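My current task is to audit a protein record that another person submitted. I have pasted the whole thing underneath without changing anything:
***
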Amino acid sequence: MPTTPVRRTPLARTAALAGLVVAPLLAPPALAQGDTDELTPPPDRPWSFTLTPRAVHYFTSDLDDDSDAGMGDVSVSRFGLLPVLQIPVGDDATLAFNGEFTYSFYNFDGSGIFDDSLDLLDDAYEAGLGVTWSNQINEHWLYAVGGGFRVSAEAGADVDDALTGRFFGTVNYRVSENFVIGGGVGVSTELDDDVLVVPIISAFYQPSEKVVFAAGGGPAAAGRTLGATITYRFQPDVALSFTGAWDYRQFRLDDDGPIPDGITTDQRVDLLVGLDWGITPTVTLRLEAGATIWQEYEFIDSDDDHLYDVETDPTAFIGGGVTFEF
């Protein structure tokens, strides 16, 4: 996991996993009650396992009236289960395994291809596994490399045509114990045989014991890809965060649907407020609410021809989850 191999305050651990991790689906670790140690090397480096069930619901938003596909609206509910295993290797390196399973319920309602009787995109799932190797080169330089695979498909789609792979690499420079900056690149195959290349700018800055800024991978609200978060811890076990994030997903469509064996791309930009409460040293409750300020659906047929691009109006969402740390 591309974080600095030092012990952080609970707030710093939460923000670091929300910001310096470039894998798209990771769970934030628990806020440990009463733990206010400074950034000092740990006496040992035990294994760590977290499991996070999460959910988010995007309320109904109107589809672009100018679309040739038809008129209507859409709402989305997602449910995710996110396991993360971190294995320390030696004094500085960490091997991390990141799992994901997310189920999405899309509800299109309208005219044309969005007529709900056509079941354009109904129940869809994402399942994957990723691995990250991170290490400290010297006192200042750190690096991380990783990759993984994911199956993203609507129920009834051909799983063999729903598999994608991804790889990323980052290099970070520790300016001080409170400031790390870096960058890298993420590369992912897509269901339409294209390759998505995303530049990554990662940052971690802790100007005070209570405030942390982190950028890179977004928080795992059942799967945001890139973003930036500023977190304020007003109690040892309670933190408030503000996040801007880009969410990008593709699904292989049902073989018997209106676009047989086609592809739907769902991408959006979210702004959200999150509240993390460390109920115990190993259990953290997260609640969040916000707005999708931009969203676009793209529909591609089995011949990789782009059929429709449809934007939606802004909409609100709510979500939450619980992280268990073992």
Q: What stands out?
A: The first helix runs from residue 10 to 19. The longest strand covers residues 72-89. Residues 1-41, 218-222 have pLDDT under 50 and may be disordered.
